Every structure is written in C-alpha cells, then in structure tokens.
Amino acid sequence: MSVVVKICGLSSEDALAAAVAGGARFVGFVFYPPSPRHLTIERAAALATRVVPGITRVGVMVDPDDEFLARLLAKAPLDLLQLHGKETPQRVLAIKERFRIRAMKAIAVAGEADLDHAKAYLGVADWLMFDAKPPKDRTDAMPGGNALAFDWRLMRARRWPVPWMLSGGLDPDNLAEAATISGADALDVSSGVESAPGIKDPAKIRLFLARAHAL
Question: What are phi and psi of 92, to 5 degrees?
Fold first, then answer.
C-alpha cells in the first residue's frame, strides 16, 4: 500500500524543512484568520518559495473572494487551492477558470449521507478531501484542523473517479489504521503533528511521514 501525505498548516521554516526532507508530497498553508495556523500572504510566499519541485503547494482557505485570490496568487507560488468552506460547484469552477489553478474541495463528514454531497463536485474539483464534520455543540470549531475523526469505514465502500484525501484526527499512531480501514492512499495531517495549536513539531512530522512511507 503506497500512501502520500500532505502536511497542513505549516508556518515555520523548520517544520517546512522537516516536511520536505521527510518526503511529503503536499504542503499546506492556511489563509483563515480565526485559525492559529493562519498566514499572511507575504509569509506564505516566503515559505512557498522554499519548496522544492515535485511537492504540491496548497493554499487552504474558506470561501475566498476573487480580490483575495488575486492578491494571494500574485505573490505566493501555489499549485492547488483547498476550498474548505461552502463553495458551490459553480464557485469552484469559476475559481479554476479565472485563476487557472487546480482545486480541491473539502467535504465535511459525520455520516453516510454527507458523502453524497461530494457527487456534485465530480467533474469540477481536481481532488476531494473528506474531513470530520464538527459537532454542532463545538462553537469554537474551525472548518478543519479540529483533531476530530469520522468513521473511516464509511469510505471503504465508496469509489471516486478523482483522487481524494482522508483528513481529520490523524496522527502518527493511528495513520496506519486509518489508511487500512478507509482505503485512502492520501492522508492529510495538521493538529496531529503539533506540540500546541498552530505550532508544528518537526519530530512529529518526521515520524508521521516515516510511518506513512513504511505502509
């Protein structure tokens, strides 16, 4: 079983270097002010330019408008946009066409019915991401990066005609189980490789990547 990894929410040179050296195939930069992982455009641009060829640079955002996207993409060399809000299929397509960039749509999952929402993005999104839907009583929850997992068995019976990532509550100790149960061959991790919210731990990044590559 071959598994590729996205290390998301990077904000320091040391963490980025650990992700790159450890063999991450995707690195994510968050643009969402309420998040402890939020970056300015300038900071993200400085980090993104350090990424070696062959690694996909992902901009993670929630319902971005065109003005922000224009400013961001004029400065930060990104390869893929991860849309984590309420973007409709029409909005995803409009972003792709205007900015000539690939897009990944995040789907919040709590139960089987939530997976059906992904069907509307087939033929539009280049990637899908399946992440845990925060409970309604978690008023402090972010759109992602909440260290919450959903029932990975839900993914096992589904087949998608586009590549997809599993996200939500992953860490070095459960990634093998998550990949085996869900059938995912791409994993996204953020809080599971942190020492504190928004603070990536290079040692945890290296461990996560090593265990993923050992599958």
Answer: -60, -45
137 catalytic per annotation: no
8, 171, 185, 201: the active-site residue: 8
List 63, 79, 131, 171, catalytic entry:
131
pLDDT digits (tens, 9 = 90+) for 111-161: 999 999 999 999 999 999 999 987 665 555 556 555 678 899 999 888 999
Domains annotated for the chain, with CATH where assigned, are 4-213 (3.20.20.70)
